[in-house]
């Protein structure tokens, strides 16, 4: 269950666009912070200079998050959309231990090698890469703007905070920078998932809340496994309590993901989905349903989620929250070490079965899997959560339909650490390519981003001329 907190962070919506870039490699130290290991390895970065003014143009730098960098490059359309206007060079850097930026090849995620996977090491990689892109100049020439969404948004903000001499400013989209222990209620995330479903259909939430008991009840009856496998097109039967729980976990993560990617246009996300997927699936729960009729409705939702393009033969529910094509397997380790983000459900303010947050059992699961002990207060102490008065030149943008907004900065902190709220936006909608279905307020948000970027660039130019 603890994995659940986690994997959902990583979804990036895939809108069909084909952008061109060159693929490059950059050598970084395995350990930036100790002096006993001398190994190096290479991280990947993608570059586009089509519109770059090599004399004065800025560098737009995407701080890669947990996944293959190509995915982020192809789906951060906002950077591509504004490159020409700013005469910018685009750089997308891959986070160590993801994609092909593996220090120990295919053994990198083994317990004896995984220890150099931290956000601090990744940021130090990015700082070295920017230094290289600036030609190792003591007085760097090009203003650098960091961009990122989700965990990448956290990294963009932290990049500016930790290396303000390297980065002139940061657009941190949907970055849950204070979803750390003690900082926000653990049920915040699932409360927002639920409210997104509540907006989409008046009976939807009550039906989903009732479906857990109905499913558990039904699963104890004769032939229920056959019925579920046939009606829900499951790849595997549901034979015992462990498998019922796996199915419930899969459904819960399905609702979380549907809420995250509740975009106004069809998107080929992790999973291909229609426009407004939450409203689409809630059509199947438009009246109060019970028993088998309710389960049939849930089965139809499963089909939308797993087979919108008609290509999947069956529902692989045993994949749990790892369903989808973004390979974020290193994230569980990060969540088990410094990035502890408490999640819980109450069944009262959300539509899920109650599941308390229990750091002791979370910690035990981490030890069992990686032989590590998570540090509950580490990220808060390292990065400050929402105590960012001393930071500058960061925009935190959040869509209120996005469950991760529960841990986001929704009110400006100072005149240069600003919040942009996108009323009907899902997970980092503002970083997506412009689309005819975009709501007015995401267009406004992108305009505000551009104004800030312009300000940061001129500040940099002024200070360095
Ligand atoms: C791991 O990498 C090595 C060396 O590149 C290769 O020989 C081996 O087949 C790989 N193993 C797996 C499981 O992919
Ligand atoms: C479960 O089944 C029992 C006995 O048939 C019934 O009383 C109860 O209401 C059912 N619960 C749910 C949540 O469907
Ligand atoms: C369960 O399946 C068996 C074998 O297909 C069948 O004989 C039996 O009648 C079924 N029981 C119920 C309650 O549907
Ligand atoms: C549940 O069924 C699966 C598949 O048959 C099996 O591997 C697993 O051990 C079972 N779990 C329990 C708790 O019986
Ligand atoms: C719910 O949707 C179904 C299928 O579209 C439709 O037949 C039914 O009339 C709807 N029920 C209500 C109460 O709107
Ligand atoms: C938390 O989990 C631990 C270990 O699994 C258990 O002993 C403890 O009772 C749990 N605490 C609460 C408050 O449920």
Q: Approximately how much beta-strand content do the residues carry?
A: 5-15%
Count of the domains: 2
Count of extended strands: 10
N-to-C SSE string, H for helix and E for strand? HEEEHHEHEHEHHHHEEHHHHHEEH
Looking across the biggest beta sheet, what order are the strands in?
1-2-4-3-5-6-9-10
Tags for this model:
single chain; 465 residues; alpha/beta; Rossmann fold; 2 domains; 15 helices; disordered N terminus
What does this 3D model show about the protein?
With 465 residues, the protein is of the alpha/beta class. It folds into two domains: 2-182 and 379-463, Rossmann fold; 188-319, Serine carboxypeptidase S28, SKS domain (Four Helix Bundle (Hemerythrin (Met), subunit A), Up-down Bundle), CATH 1.20.120. The chain has 15 helices and ten strands. The strands form two sheets. Strands 1-2-4-3-5-6-9-10 form an eight-stranded mixed beta sheet, sandwiched between helices. The protein has a two-stranded antiparallel sheet with strand order 7-8. α6 (188-200) crosses α9 (241-260) and α7 (204-219) packs across α11. The protein is globular and about 75 Å long. One 2-acetamido-2-deoxy-beta-D-glucopyranose binds at residues 222-223.
Brief write-up:
The protein folds into two domains: 2-182 and 379-463, 3-Layer(aba) Sandwich (Rossmann fold); 188-319, Up-down Bundle (Four Helix Bundle (Hemerythrin (Met), subunit A)).
Explain the layout of strands and helices.
Blueprint: H1 4-7, E1 22-29, E2 40-48, E3 59-63, H2 69-75, H3 77-86, E4 89-93, H4 119-133, E5 144-149, H5 151-162, E6 169-173, H6 188-200, H7 204-219, H8 224-231, H9 241-260, E7 267-268, E8 272-273, H10 277-282, H11 291-307, H12 331-335, H13 359-370, H14 378-383, E9 394-399, E10 417-422, H15 440-463
Parallel strand pairs: 3-4, 3-5, 5-6, 6-9, 9-10
Antiparallel strand pairs: 1-2, 2-4, 7-8
Helix pairs in contact: 6-9, 7-11
């Amino acid at each position: 269950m603890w994995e659940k907190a986690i994997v959902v962070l990583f979804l990036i919506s895939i809108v069909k666009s084909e952008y061109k870039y060159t693929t490059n490699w950059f050598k970084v130290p395995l350990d930036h912070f100790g002096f006993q290991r001398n190994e190096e390895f290479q991280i990947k970065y993608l570059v586009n200079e089509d519109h770059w003014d090599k004399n004065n143009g800025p560098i737009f730098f995407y701080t890669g998050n947990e996944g293959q960098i190509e995915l982020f490059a192809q789906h951060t359309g906002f950077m591509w959309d504004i490159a020409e206007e700013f005469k910018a060079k685009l750089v997308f850097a891959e986070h160590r231990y993801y994609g092909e930026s593996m220090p120990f090849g295919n053994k990198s995620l083994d317990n004896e090698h995984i220890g150099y996977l931290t956000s601090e090491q990744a940021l130090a990689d990015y700082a070295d890469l920017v230094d290289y892109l600036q030609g190792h100049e003591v007085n760097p020439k090009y203003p650098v703007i960091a961009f990122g969404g989700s965990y990448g948004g956290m990294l963009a903000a932290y990049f500016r905070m930790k290396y303000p001499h390297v980065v002139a400013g940061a657009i941190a989209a949907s970055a849950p920078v204070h979803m750390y222990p003690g900082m926000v209620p653990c049920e915040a995330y699932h409360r927002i998932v639920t409210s997104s479903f509540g907006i989409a259909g008046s009976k939807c939430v009550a039906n989903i809340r009732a479906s857990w008991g109905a499913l558990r009840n039904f699963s104890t009856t004769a032939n229920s496994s056959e019925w579920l496998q046939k009606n829900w097109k499951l790849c595997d039967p549901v034979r015992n309590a462990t498998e019922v729980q796996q199915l419930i976990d899969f459904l819960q993560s399905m609702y979380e993901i549907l809420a995250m990617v509740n975009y106004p246009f069809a998107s080929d996300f992790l999973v291909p989905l229609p426009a407004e997927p939450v409203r689409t699936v809630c059509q199947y729960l438009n009246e109060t349903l019970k028993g088998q009729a309710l389960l049939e409705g849930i089965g139809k939702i499963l089909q939308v989620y797993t087979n919108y393009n008609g290509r999947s033969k069956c529902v692989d529910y045993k994949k749990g929250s790892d369903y989808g094509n973004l390979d974020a397997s290193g994230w569980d380790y990060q969540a088990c070490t410094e990035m502890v983000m408490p999640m819980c459900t109450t069944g009262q303010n959300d539509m899920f079965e109650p599941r308390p947050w229990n750091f002791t059992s979370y910690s035990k699961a981490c030890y069992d899997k990686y032989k590590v002990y998570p540090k509950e207060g580490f990220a808060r102490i390292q990065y400050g959560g929402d105590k960012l008065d001393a930071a500058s030149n960061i925009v935190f943008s959040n869509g209120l339909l996005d469950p991760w907004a529960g841990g986001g900065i929704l009110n400006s902190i100072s005149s240069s650490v600003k919040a942009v709220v996108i009323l009907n936006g899902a997970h980092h909608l503002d970083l997506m390519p412009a689309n005819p279905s975009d709501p007015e307020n995401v267009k406004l948000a992108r305009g505000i981003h551009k104004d800030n970027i312009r300000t940061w660039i001129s500040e940099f130019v002024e200070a360095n001329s």
